[in-house]
Amino acid sequence: MTRLTLLRHAKSVWDSPDQQDIDRTINDRGRREATLMGLVCAERLPPPDLVLVSPAVRARETVELFFEAWRDAKPEILVVEALYLAGLDDWRTILEENTGNAGHILVCSHQPGLGDFASWLCRDFSGKVPSATVISLLPESGKLAQDSAVLGFTGKPKDY
Prior knowledge:
The protein is of the alpha/beta class. It has a single domain, classed as 3-Layer(aba) Sandwich (Rossmann fold), CATH 3.40.50.1240. It has four helices and six strands. Strands 3-2-4-1-5-6 form a six-stranded mixed β-sheet, sandwiched between helices. Strand 2 (50-53), helix 2 (57-69) and strand 3 form a beta-alpha-beta unit. The two termini are 28 Å apart.
């Protein structure tokens, strides 16, 4: 792995009390943010080889819109059940079991696990991760270990 890009799902709908958390969709703002961040990443990052995405509807919708905007990227997309509500201890296992020989991996998932993992992997990153934020890390020697990555790029929708 030469690059690991983390994408928090876009802003989601909260006004449906009968809906299960995993079934929540993204709202209008989230649709705009997912598209915007796909365009931003298309200009700043190499396309990923593999995408791992949480099974939550909001994460899958985010990935769909993100890559509709990033037209040149045609990664393999894999839904990984374990990413839904994954904690820090789960992240390394998920990546080791699902990435194979991919060079650039993008993962779309949730807080707080996503931010906790980014902070664990890169000492220069703090754990606050607003919706649709992108964190692109460069793991030294391709290994996933505490403080083993440098921050290659970070961006959030309000910056653009």
